[in-house]
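Researcher: First entry.
Model:
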Amino acid sequence: MKLKHKTVYFASVLALGTAVITLNSCSRYLDTEPITDQVVEESAPIKDAADAEDKMTSIYSEFGGEFWQLDQFMNGDSQTDIAYAGADNVQNFQQDEYRILATNGNVNRDWNYLYNFIFKCNLVLNNIDNVAGVSTARKAEMKAEASILRSLAYFHAVQLWGDVPLVTKAITSVNSSNFDEVYAQTFPTRKPVTEVYAMIISDLEGALASAPANSEKYRANKGAAYGLLAKVYATKPSPDWAKVKQYCDLVSGYSLLPLYDNLFDGTHEGNAESIWEANGNGGNIWAWGTFMFAGTDWKKFNTPSNDLVKTFSDEGDTQRLNASVLFSPTTVSWSDSFWPSNHFPFANKMRLTDGNQNFYILRYADILLLKAEANVQSGDLSGAATLVNQVRTRVGLSPISIASADDGINKILKERKMELAFEGHRWFDLKRTGKAIAVLSQQKDANGVVLPYAANLTQNRLLWPIPQPQMDKNANLVQNPGY
């Protein structure tokens, strides 16, 4: 007999065991902790066609949440030589200085955000086939979108934590016949990264047939699936560089914008270089994140580093410097050990302060440079240089040549550093290429002195700890080494 409740509750293995005993009683609720904030009717997780569209909209609305508006950029850049943590949050300082604790609130909230995102995707994937009034083609398209979105969440998770649980069911009811499945999905173990990447690839490749067209830039589209597949095959253990090149080549029909600054000026949304972007302007999100990075009302997050500004300046890259970094035109009301009050920089790519800011999930320059990396790894040094030079020509820089594989990786990383600053890529680029410790251990301050915390970065610190609150709720989780 099913329990008569709207939200599934569990707090511990003991509580779940108690639930089994009470399956024959309809008079009790499980008075414990919810596994999800989503309230779902067990009889009809998706009621009708309109509700199905609402469920899809709910997934995309997550791009207006804290993970996608703030944390993904902090995770990708503040942990690197691109930016200092900025602001005054001690949780962010732990990230910046490679001394994260398992009790770090940012780490726990990101786990929750990503798994809530995954829950919403699973809800569609598990239930859309049973909904009346939705065409067969639209059901296939919804499943393709949800699969791409789920793969994006798992790609972030596996890069942050390594082995992670694979939750593929949105639990909306408990009964005697599904108890084992409920237990496995509610108290999951961590799966090896190889299994996680295999599922991501399966999701993405399975979505290709029915994904929206490339022109649907504000949705999880076919070009986005190809681009993510290229990035996944480059990042997984034992990268498959032939697959990377194959999928990079399938990201077709895009071109670099002639003027780099147009990418971020708010008047060229859904442009020819955009593969997939979150839609703040006319979409279903309010893009509040820009206030976290720009403005003089309080000290902002992701303060541009001295090293990044020096990299731009040494290269003579004024176009990307000016598009990426804005020095305050007035003296700010604070200073720090990196920048004086009368010359304080802000990250400049998130500029619109009216809530309409779009941001890229994938754009074509990223894919060109990823293919260049695959060419280097495959021995095609001249082909790699040609691709890098496409990106450099756009901003008026002279061409480079590549002398060796290591020279190629270093030059591509430098190009990605300048091209993709403040878009949340640097931490993952350095980890993927095996350069994180060598590069980040040499971070310097404004006087050229190596930052003391740079020595904190060790192999163990390339992965985050499993959040202690998750460990407390799920005895099946095992902590990462070094925490």
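Researcher: Second entry.
Model:
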Amino acid sequence: MYIKKLNNNESIVVSIPLTTQTEKTRIKRRSMLNQYGLPVATRSENITQDCYVEWQIGYDAVVNDISKLERTTLPMIRFEGANGKEKALYELSEYVYYFLKWEIIKEEELIDIGQKLININEENLFESESMLAIKRSHFIEKEFNETKFLYAKIEYPILVHKFDSYEIITEIVIKEKQYAIGVQPMLYLCFPVTQLKSNISLLGRTADKKEEAEFIIDKNNYKILLKLIYLFGMLSVNHRKDILSIIDVCLVNK
């Protein structure tokens, strides 16, 4: 995702792709919150009222990732990540930076979030919280198609946070790390397609090739940004360190 337009110190227009499935956004469909969202092939399926955007929103760009660095409007405002890599502000941290600069977000709000995160005990971060452990059942013997197997179930915890007075939620899913030992909390911002702006209504039609729509962040919904950085900081030790560094660099460079 990238910032399409900055509007007179008042709002940010973010471009949301409707057809590119390799991006960090997907159009999905479900009629109830507790259902598993199914991807929508928007080039061949009509976009309907029960469609929503699932956005694995990021907050940084590693400076040697040229493709991502080219998307940020703030490539020179950098910090050292928890993994020791040099990073630039990107997506969530970009939005926070601008709203702080425009004095819509107050310094005290960011400082308060930072202090709250510092005060969270390490064992209460999501990667360590015992109540959020991945559960695995014991193996039992099962036979499928005349072949014997050992069968077990794995349950992944999911947390949903609803934003007040908005049809916008955050989903946090706890999964195993792909290339290392341990768990990896993953955060998704989800909102109905009706929150998107387009020259032609999206409902009841398929998307055009490489079509994009707009998600607008302004003084009416900017507090979602504050909650998101707080939630990110709760995920793990490394996430918290990154978010605290982002808060510091935003305050210094405003």
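Model: Note on the second entry: The chain has a mean pLDDT of 92.
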